[in-house]
Every structure is written in structure tokens, then in C-alpha cells.
Amino acid sequence: MMKRVILLCSLLIYLVFIWLQSSYFNPEIFYEYASYINMNVIIFLGVLLELAHLIEFGILYLILLHILLTYGGLTVKKEVAAAVFSIGYGLVDEIHQLYVPFRSFSLLDLLKNIVGVLVVMYIFKKYYNNRRLIKEKSKTNVKQST
């Protein structure tokens, strides 16, 4: 029970973090400092900011899935629910950016959010299934040795 409360609180904190980050982060600030920074650093920062979408919403998916796994094993319904919520929140966040002065709605950003969720979904499923297979093999080996 306490684990679920902690996970729900971490989810709420993370959702607020995403919201605030998209509300107050002004990507145009890098242009002000462009003449003072090495071009390679600027390119690196740009790539990092673009990858942030993938990472940010992939983490959201993992938090949601972790919460859902406290209610039993991994199912397709749980995976889809976590993915739909994560992608939906990405859409809501992009719409929200329409009302932030220095931000804008971007289909490309939404696509990056979706790709981030799908990549993490794929990696998690592979990890989860491999872990389950290893446990099943070890149980079979223990039964065979007795």
C-alpha cells in the first residue's frame, strides 16, 4: 500500500515537472549565447534537447507501468494504458504550449514523445520477458534436481 502511495506521489511530481518545464523553459535563450559558445557545444545541446522528448515521456511510461505492476503482472492492457496515458499527456502538453509565449505546438515534438514511449515500451517488454524466462528456467532446473 505504501509503495503505491509513493509511486503515485512520484507520478504527480513528475507530471508537474513536465508541465513546469514546458511552461518556463525558453529554448530561444541559446541564441543569446550562441556567439560565446563553441558550435560543437551548441549542436550537442540541441541534440540533447531533442532527445529530452524521448527520455521524458519514456520515463513517464515507466513510472505509470511501475504503478500498474503493483496490481499484478504485466498485461497488454496495462502496457497500452500506460502508453496511451503517456502519449495523451504529451498531446496535452503540446496543446498547453500553444498558450506559452515562447513555445509552440509541434507535431514533430509529439512524434518524438510517441517514439520515446514506444522505444521504452519495447525495451521494457524485452527485459520483462527475459527476466520471466530466466525465472521459469531456474524453477524448472530446481524441480529437475530434486
Keywords:
mainly alpha, 5 helices, 0% strand
General shape? elongated
Please give the count of helices: 5
Question: What structural class do helix, strand and pairing data support?
Answer: mainly alpha
Beta-strand content estimate: under 5%
The helicity comes to over 70%
H/E series: HHHHH
Largest sheet features: none
**Uncertain residue segments:** none
Separation, N- and C-terminal Cα atoms: 37 Å
Q: Average the pLDDT over all residues and give the rounded result.
A: 88
Q: How many beta strands in the DSSP annotation? A: 0
Radius of gyration: 20 Å
Overview in brief:
The protein is an all-alpha fold. It has five helices and no strands.
What does this entry look like structurally?
- 82% of the residues lie in helices and 0% in strands.
- It is mainly alpha-helical and 146 residues long.
